[in-house]
Write a structure and sequence with these properties.
Elements: E1 9-10, H1 20-27, H2 36-56, E2 60-62, H3 78-81, E3 87-96, E4 105-107, E5 111-113, H4 120-124, H5 126-130, E6 144-154, H6 157-174, E7 178-184, H7 186-189, E8 193-194, H8 200-220, E9 224-228, H9 231-234, H10 245-262, E10 271-275, H11 294-298, E11 304-307, E12 331-337, H12 347-361, E13 367-370, H13 380-401
Parallel strand pairs: 1-13, 2-7, 6-8, 7-9, 9-10, 10-11, 11-12, 12-13
Antiparallel strand pairs: 3-6, 4-5
Keywords: Transferase
GO molecular function: 5-methyltetrahydropteroyltriglutamate-homocysteine S-methyltransferase activity; zinc ion binding
Protein name: Epoxyalkane--coenzyme M transferase
Length: 402
C-alpha cells in the first residue's frame, strides 16, 4: 500500500452516492440477474465516479461499492446485503433486519448477539428512535435477510470480476495510481440466521472460507482489498445484557482469527481493515471505547487500519496512539470527515486532525480518509463537499508537514 511519502494521501471508506440512473437500474434487477444494458451502465458509472474522485483530489480511489446493489438513496445495509447474492447455501427467511428480534446467537463468555431492535442504544433512547422527526435515520423499507441452510460457498465470481474490471478500466481512464474494493469480513458475514452449522465458531470460519475467494480475486488483480468489519465494534451494542469487556474481546477474537485464516497466503500488505461503530444516525452512547478494540485491530496482519476519528463520539480516541506502535510497513487511515453529520468539516479542522495523527505515527504512515461510507448516509451534494474538504485539509496538512 502506498505511503504518504511526498504529501498526505487521501481516500475514503468505500460507499459513495449512487446516481439516480443506477438506483433505478438496481430496483429493476430481476432473478434472471444483470443484463448487458445494466453492465454497461454500471461500467460507465464507475468510470465517471473514479474520474470525479481524481478531480476532487482523492489519491486511493474506489468503485464506490457500485457493484453492491443499493435499494434506495438512503441505505445503511448495502455494504453487507450484497453478499447474499454471492453466497451459496442461503435461503429466504422472511426475517426483517430492522424489525425482527428472533435471531439470537451465543459465543464465548455467555455473550448473546441480538438484532437491531434490541440494541442498547435504541432501548436507552426509545422515544427518540420512535420519533420519525428526530433525525435518527433508521426507518427503511423492509430489509429481508436470508438464513443459512446448507454449506456456504462463494458464487460471486462473475460479480467480483466485473467489479475488478470496472475499477481497473476507470483507473486507467482517469490516471489513478491506486484503487481499492471493499469486501465483507467473516465476522460481519456471519450476522445472519444460521440453521446449518453446529457452532458459532464453525459458522464464522465457514464465512471466512467462502469470502476468501473474493479476497483473493481482488488482490490477484493488483488492487487494494478493504475488509469491511463494523461487527468488531458494532456487535457490542447488540448484546443484552452488556457483557464484560473481557468476554466481548473473547467473542471478537474468534472473528479476528477467522479473518486471519481467510487471509492466509495472500498479499496482506495490500489489505486495509475497516472498523466502525455502525452508520446509523443515533446517539451511540453505548458504543464500546476504541481503547478496548485497538489491540485486536492491530493483531490483524494487514497493511492498513481504517477507523472512525472524526465522529464526535470517537474523535477523542486519537489518544490510543500515544502508547501504541504501528506494525512495520503499515499505515493508518483515520476518518477526518464524518458520515454522521450533514455539517461539512472546515479544511483547517481536517488539517489539524491529520497533523495530530502524523505526530503520533509519522506523516508517511497517515492516509486521510472518511469515518465510514458516505453513500446512502448523507446527501450526494454533501458527500462530495465532504470529500472536497478532505482533500483541501490534506493539502493544508501537507504544506505544514512536508
Amino acid at each position: 500500500m502506498l505511503h504518504s511519502t511526498d504529501a498526505i494521501r487521501t481516500t475514503h471508506v468505500g460507499s459513495l452516492p449512487r446516481t439516480d440512473a443506477l438506483l433505478a437500474a438496481n430496483a429493476e434487477l430481476t432473478e434472471q440477474g444483470r443484463t448487458p444494458a445494466f453492465d454497461r451502465l454500471l461500467a460507465d458509472s464507475v468510470t465517471d465516479l473514479v474520474r470525479r474522485q481524481v478531480e476532487t483530489g482523492i489519491s486511493q480511489v474506489g468503485d464506490g461499492e457500485y457493484g453492491h446493489a443499493m435499494s434506495h438513496s438512503v441505505d445503511y445495509g448495502a455494504w453487507w446485503n450484497y453478499s447474499f447474492a454471492r453466497l451459496g447455501g442461503l435461503e429466504p427467511s422472511g426475517l426483517d433486519r430492522w424489525a425482527d428480534t428472533s435471531v439470537r446467537r451465543s459465543g464465548p463468555g455467555n455473550v448473546v448477539l441480538t438484532t437491531f431492535p434490541d440494541r442498547r442504544d435504541r432501548r436507552a433512547f426509545a422515544e427518540a428512535y420512535s420519533d420519525p422527526d428526530s433525525g435518527i435515520l433508521t426507518g427503511r423499507r423492509r430489509a429481508l435477510q436470508p438464513k443459512v441452510t446448507g454449506p456456504l460457498t462463494y458464487t460471486g465470481q462473475q460479480a467480483v470480476a466485473a467489479d475488478i474490471a470496472n475499477l481497473q478500466a476507470a483507473m486507467a481512464a482517469a490516471g489513478a495510481d491506486e484503487g481499492f474494493i471493499p469486501s465483507l469480513s467473516p465476522g460481519s458475514c456471519s450476522r445472519i440466521a444460521n440453521e446449518y452449522y453446529a457452532t458459532e465458531e464453525e459458522f464464522v470460519y465457514a464465512c471466512a472460507d467462502a469470502m476468501r475467494e473474493e479476497y483473493r480475486a481482488i488482490l490477484d488483480a493488483g488492487l487494494v482489498l478493504q475488509i469491511d468489519d463494523p461487527s468488531i465494534a458494532e456487535n457490542w451494542d447488540m448484546i443484552n445484557p452488556e457483557p464484560t469487556v473481557a468476554d466481548y474481546q473473547a467473542f471478537t477474537r474468534v472473528r479476528i482469527e477467522a479473518l486471519q485464516s481467510a487471509l492466509r497466503g495472500l498479499d496482506t500488505s495490500r489489505v486495509r481493515f475497516h472498523v466502525c461503530w455502525g452508520s446509523w444516525h443515533g446517539p451511540h452512547t453505548t458504543d464500546i471505547g476504541f481503547e478496548h478494540l485497538v489491540d485486536l485491530m492491530l493483531s490483524v496482519e494487514v497493511g492498513g487500519y481504517s477507523f472512525e476519528a472524526g465522529n464526535v463520539r470517537h474523535e477523542h480516541e486519537w489518544r490510543v496512539w500515544q502508547d501504541r506502535v504501528l506494525p512495520d510497513g503499515a499505515v493508518i487511515l483515520p476518518g477526518v470527515v464524518s458520515h454522521a453529520t450533514n455539517v461539512v468539516e472546515h479544511p483547517r479542522l481536517v488539517a489539524d486532525r491529520i497533523v495530530r495523527f502524523a505526530g503520533l505515527v509519522g506523516k508517511e504512515n497517515v492516509v486521510a480518509s472518511t469515518d465510514c461510507g458516505l453513500g446512502g448516509r448523507v446527501h450526494p451534494q454533501i458527500a462530495w463537499a465532504k470529500l472536497a474538504a478532505l482533500t483541501a485539509g490534506a493539502a493544508l496538512a501537507s504544506a505544514e508537514l512536508y
